[in-house]
Amino acid sequence: MTFLKLPTESLLTSKKINSEHVLYFTCGSGVTACIALLVATQYGYERICLYDGSWVEWGAIDHLPIE
User: Fold this and answer.
1) Do residues 50 and 23 lie in contact, with contact meaning Cβ atoms separated by under 8 Å?
2) What pTM, to 2 d.p., does this model score?
3) What's the CA gap between 23 and 56, in Å, rounded?
4) Which string of DSSP letters, residue by residue, matches 11-62?
5) What gap in Å lies between CA 23 and CA 48, rounded to an integer?
6) Domain segments of the chain as ranges
7) Are 57 and 64 in contact (CB under 8 A)?
8) How many C-alpha atoms does 3 have within 13 Å on its Cβ side?
9) Count of alpha carbons within 13 angstroms of residue 48, beta-carbon side
10) How many C-beta atoms lie closer than 10 Å to residue 16's C-beta?
11) Cα 57–58–63 angle (5° rounding)?
12) Are the C-beta atoms of residues 42 and 3 closer than 8 Å to each other?
């Protein structure tokens, strides 16, 4: 399957993010993080992690740090 090259690829390379990095995705509820993770997989990234609880879960747990 062929995908259109999106500006996301140039953003990743301009920030010197390569396939050797482990990428962690999180957001407010987990939905946007899933989309970002999908884009990363389309560009060949394999070392990816998703915190699907995201901010909604993290912010509700009193003992976790918030900066």
Assistant:
1) no
2) 0.68
3) 20
4) HHHHTT--TTSPEEE--SSSHHHHHHHHHHHHTT--SEEE-TTHHHHHHH-T
5) 5
6) 7-60
7) no
8) 12
9) 21
10) 7
11) 125
12) yes
pLDDT digits (tens, 9 = 90+) for 5-61: 666 667 777 777 777 889 999 999 888 999 989 988 888 889 999 998 888 998 999
Options 3.40.50.300, 3.40.250.10, 3.20.20.70, 3.90.320.10; CATH of 7-60 = 3.40.250.10
Q: Which amino acid would we find at residue 51? A: Y
Largest CA distance in the chain: 45
